[in-house]
Amino acid sequence: MAGEVIAMTGCLPPRLPPGLVAGTFVVVAVLASTLIVYRLYLSPIVRISPNEVHINDPEYFAELNSNTLKLDKYAWYYGFAAAAGSGFGTVSSDLHRIRRNALAKYFSTSNVSHLEPFIQKWVAKLCSRLKEHRQDAKVVDLSNAYRCFAQDSLKDSAASIVSSKGRTLENAKPTVLQEIYDSDLPASEKSVSRFFQEAQTLTIAGTETTSNTLSFTTFYLLSDPTKIELLKRELIDMKRDLSQPLAYFDLQKLPYLAAVITEGLRISDSVAGRLPRVNRNAAMRYKSFEIPAGTAISMSIRDIHFNESIFSSAHEFQPERWLGDAAKKQALEKFMIAFSRGPRNCIGMNLALAEMYLVIGTLFRNFDMRLFDTKEEDLTIAHDFFMPFGPSDSKGLRVKVL
């Protein structure tokens, strides 16, 4: 039913946008459906359910996700996560701020630098497995390899709480969850149930989003030998001794690698679902529309990252768009929202970036690969489970290591 639009007769609350048909509302089976609604109504704001409007206007994203607004999440929508005790699933903006502050130090830039040896360990393990498959001339399922890497690199933090079940937290291995335990949060915020919900959401988010971006980035690089050559030259010129690991600090200085990572984040759709917010205390305004308090307002990262008026040839992988003219790059960065913005932006952003730089930098410096029976359609979103998944018959990103 994805993409089907159902028009229903009903009463609209005062000032709530009705699309262009007075006295009706639109119920949408979401995915590509919001795009269909925009075409039908020729409007950037559409009522997609009785209590939710969806806005497709890149300029409004910063306003909706402003640090100054205290917007709640839409409880009905985020109920899919079944993790109201986690930071991700927290509805109240006030409670979310308290919970996030307990974790912020762990995911800070400075602390991620301390985590780099753990990431490097799993990068080395990934390289070791690729060498084994090269020696045996086996096809590598890189989609799953990247998932394993991302989860392994998390296991010493959030995921390790699973192995701590049955032991007291005082005796557990220090983890990101230890930050919660050691914080000044009240005892009610330190229950085993909440710890498991936090671990679950951090692990899922940190695995699927990172591995998805790595898969897309690798696919598009392997589809264009010119881009591989540019990247390899930059990486080898930085450090010619292939036996020495690359440092994240050094990799961040490489302009073409940075452009590759940024473009991979843009085009990979790490979050496919919309991101509804609710102002329970006051009405919101969008242009001439007044949106009553309590109405869910959703926007989508995908709408912005594939907006042709901002990113020309938006469905093409073009790292070059992030190079050259500084003013042009700055204009694009305004709409680069892979990690969202504002108080609900991705708390694991610094960790994810470190993982991506280290994996892409190391693999494309040390290995030659070619695609094996993999087409763009194998990765393109076909299912919206909040995070994007490809066709059910896809075998993922498969390569041969040369």
From TrEMBL:
The UniProt record gives the binding positions of heme as: 346
Q: Check the record and name the Pfam families matching this protein.
A: p450
- Domain of life of the organism in this record? Eukaryota
List the signal peptide residues. Answer: none
Q: Is Transmembrane there in the keyword field? A: yes
Q: Which SUPFAM superfamilies match?
A: Cytochrome P450
Q: Which cofactor does it need?
A: heme
Q: Name one GO molecular function term.
A: monooxygenase activity
The transmembrane residues are 20-41
The protein's UniProt keywords, in alphabetical order, are: Heme, Iron, Membrane, Metal-binding, Monooxygenase, Oxidoreductase, Transmembrane, Transmembrane helix
Q: Does the keyword Transmembrane helix apply?
A: yes
Question: Which family is annotated?
Answer: Belongs to the cytochrome P450 family.
This protein is called: Cytochrome P450
